[in-house]
Amino acid sequence: MENVVIYRIINSPYKPNIIIVMRQLATLFLMLLILPAYSNGQISIATNPLANPTPLYGQTQLVQTFNANIRSGVADTTLLRNIINQTGANQTWTLTGLQYGAGVPTNVRYSAPTGAPGASNFPTANLVSRVITGQDTAVWSFSNTAADRFTSLGSVVGQLSTNTAFTNSVFAFNPGLDGLRFPLNNTSAWTQTSQTLISELVSAGITTPVLFTYDFRVDGFGSVVTPAGTSQVLRLRQTASATISLAGIPISTTAFNYLFINQSGQALASIMETRLGLPPGLPIQTPPPFSASYSTYGALSVRELAAPRPTDFSLEQNYPNPFNPSTTIRFSLPTAQTVSLKIYDLLGREVASLLSNERKAAGSYEATFNATALTSGIYIYRLEAGSFSQTRKMMLVK
Questions:
Q1: CATH number among 3.30.1330.10, 2.60.40.1930, 3.30.1310.20, 3.40.1400.10, domain 304-396
Q2: Which pLDDT tens digit goes with each residue over 120-137?
């Protein structure tokens, strides 16, 4: 999910500072996109199902995001503007008229704050989500969940192999930002202000916290249509604005993010519009004002175990074995790898995929396999992680 707004600033001494501010503003919305699923019969959610986040600890979820390639000319801009202008009851928001790139798979790993890089900056956090962003880098986002709200506290960027935060990588809200408040329904609306002291800006000489003003409101409900299908949703409009002074030059920015949230609490699609206010004569070239994406969500099926870092690859025998209908498979990775874990019958036909080319950090993992739809017999499960591969047999007895 790399919906980061980058501004090319030609021959300007303020290039690093402006880019940092814009990137952090866009990151605000990205942190609110990845929310675990929960069930509710209506598009009205009474209380936060994550008031107790403990059951999520150690679990991972695959979120795949498809970013639109906004084409030159007015067609895409007009389409997105028309979608944004659709407010109120019983709307149909159709996002299939855009061209989308290949989906970017992201593994989100949930944990308690204890031991996470930068946790001391967020003493009220009770949930951390980690997203691997590179070969040995990740972003840890810190939140506080309560019955009536889901509050984003900030994030750090760090090194996976050492589990440490990089210098000047802390992005913190003061106070924390309520990305969702409950009950969430057709009339929900709230506002907030939050000071944000960004470490990167401090290193660039800006030591005064930036005051952001936020406005959240549900501005419509109906159906959203993406290449992944049609779903009933609420549309939550998030607005963030701020003005900073760089070398005496005032620069204002406003970002509008429109999230299409289904009855399971997942953001199925997003449209972002960014407006940059600059004094005349500043040599800056801005990108198209819009970005758009849609997402698909995998099940919470693989749990990372709290255990010492493994020294070798391993695939353990499933347990129980024989089983009916569910069994547990554990495996270990001494280094971060792209991992597949698949189930085959004795004819070599794939019957289930628990992991498919997903990036996993070093650690020990536990996957649950449910064979309700399969017949009794012997099955083979195979782990592939980089150049390592191993297979084992298991028996389903019904």
A1: 2.60.40.1930
A2: 999 999 999 998 887 788
